[in-house]
Write a structure and sequence with these properties.
Length: 202
């Protein structure tokens, strides 16, 4: 199934409810977080796109030239394309709020959508990596953001995770962070934090 160029899975929720976009990590697909999203917000519309960039057969949302080295032109292309996709589907489903959840590469495209376009009222970024200094965006004031991370994550180093958290705080977003002692894996305390985050009034 395609819509605006992305293969995706979609569950249409109840009218007037939020729409939740879930973004997989490198090598994942539209199935990685779709059912998790449905359990998180049973009445919401859930949309899970598959990244349209192939890295040796692994689906991603934008190109990179090395580990943690982004193709910034392709990141801009992907951000513009995904922005239109998100806005079109949110409008089509009459969503009350736009929510996002992404892991690793999916967290990075979600973070850049926030930085460049705003768009999301609340977002959970699981093990994000933004290796550049984002520009100021006053539209992020009041947005709710959860960042989860591992203290020994070789892909998303602690210093860059803390820098991203500080950036969002600097834009006056409401930032929560959840750490575990491991690496680039998702652990139970993150799942619990995500559940609490999306159960809070929005």
């Amino acid at each position: 199934m395609t819509n605006n160029g992305y293969v995706h899975r979609l569950h249409a929720g109840a009218p007037g409810k939020p729409i939740l976009f879930v973004f997989h990590g490198t090598g994942g697909d539209e199935n990685q977080f779709f059912d998790f999203g449905r359990r998180l917000l049973p009445e919401a519309t859930i949309v899970s796109p598959r990244g349209d960039v192939s890295e040796y057969g692994a689906a991603r949302f934008f190109k990179r030239t090395g580990e943690g080295v982004y193709d910034m032109a392709d990141l801009a292309r992907a951000t513009d394309k995904m922005s239109g996709y998100v806005q079109d589907l949110a409008s089509a489903h009459g969503a009350s709020r736009i929510l996002g959840l992404g892991f690793s590469n999916g967290a990075n495209i979600l973070a850049n959508l926030l930085i460049e376009k705003g768009l999301f009222d609340a977002a959970a970024l699981l093990h994000p990596l933004i290796p550049f200094r984002p520009h100021a965006n006053p539209d992020l004031s009041g947005r709710r953001i959860l960042i989860t991370a591992g203290q020994r994550d070789p892909i998303s180093p602690v210093a860059l995770t803390e820098a991203l958290s500080a950036y969002f705080e600097g834009q006056k977003a409401q930032v929560q962070t959840e750490w575990h002692s491991g690496g680039h894996d998702i652990r139970p305390n993150e799942i619990e934090a995500i559940g609490r985050f999306f159960s809070e009034p929005m």
